[in-house]
Amino acid sequence: MTNVDEALLDDNEDLDEYEILDREESESEDEDEVNNVSMELGGGGNDLNHHNAMMEESTTQQHQNNRAGGREHQNLCRQPSREDPSQIDSGLSSQQQGEERVDEELGLDGYLRTEQIGQGAYGIVYKATKISTGETVAIKRIPFAETSEGGVPCSVIREISLLREIDHVNVVKLLDVLHRQTGGLFLVFEYVAHDLKTFLDNHQVSDDASQRHGLPKDMVKSFLRQILSGVSVCHTYRILHRDLKPHNLLISANGNELKLADFGLARLSGLPNGPYTHEVVTLWYRAPELLLGANRYNGAVDVWSIGCIFAEMATGKPLFPGKGADIDQLFRIFQKRGTPTHEIWPVVTQLPHFNPEFPKFPATENGITDFVSIDALGSPKASDLLERFLQYDPDQRIVCKEALQHPYFYE
Fold it and tell me: Could you give the residue ranges of the DSSP H alpha helices within 24-93?
């Protein structure tokens, strides 16, 4: 890990500590889809209540693991299940035994594992080759839950069901789902070389965090257009991603193509919107309405995240780097955007976590350009688009389709 990585992680204590509290989420259409995928997989829970109970249990365990220091590069995997006592004396470590089982199971389906490339809360990700075609793929292995019934995490079922709905160049493709009763579930994705966080880090010329710089302006514009295109098609299908951040945006090896990934927190939005959990989106990219406890929201939460990512691509630094608590994150936003008032956000005082005693930070004279310079963004039009992404009132935020027509993309 570089000094830059350490510095950013120090500033981002508990960055990936969010919980998925689906007991508040009650949209019948989404529940039906989860049940349908669950029945197709046939391994774990025959009804939604079973999956919701498993989700709450796995969420609590994930939260505890993160606090114990388990913040891996990707939030992708549940830790492997207990060892098989019959294999303890086999002369192989449990890790080696697990890898041999993975190789055997993948081999039966025509894939050859080459290396491990990620590990997190719900699965280990391997780089692999499809033997029949030579195609390189990424395979996420999700062990079944350690319960008497067994089962697949509800977030994984949701990710499968939503990715089946989308076929778009800027959304990572789910190529296959392999169901193994002994080894859990294997999700086969198209392989994409980098994530945006790693890509940004690789463009730095110094390990000094204060010397970080953004990507070339034409590249920022191209990536932003692709993010908006991917999120726009999600919103067209009424899918809220709810976890947009650089780690979840994949960049091709040639540095030209960008794809949305990791739909584990995504869900369908209905009419009316909610109630949903507000404990979504990694802290630095979380919209103020979520930080203030809103449980009815729409695609505007993704748009706020896009604005934060836009600024980070332009400068190389996170815009609102909170330190692990919602209140600190809120104050980071207030310091740069001013404390919101009823005049600029009429419903703010009605949100559950709003406090009239919040410090009254004034809005800066030049708006967001006091913190993200026009020089870094490239033009006043770019600054205007960023301002429209980061409006306090979700109803005033620009929508993705409109943003794609903004003059910034045509100058």
Answer: 28-41, 48-67
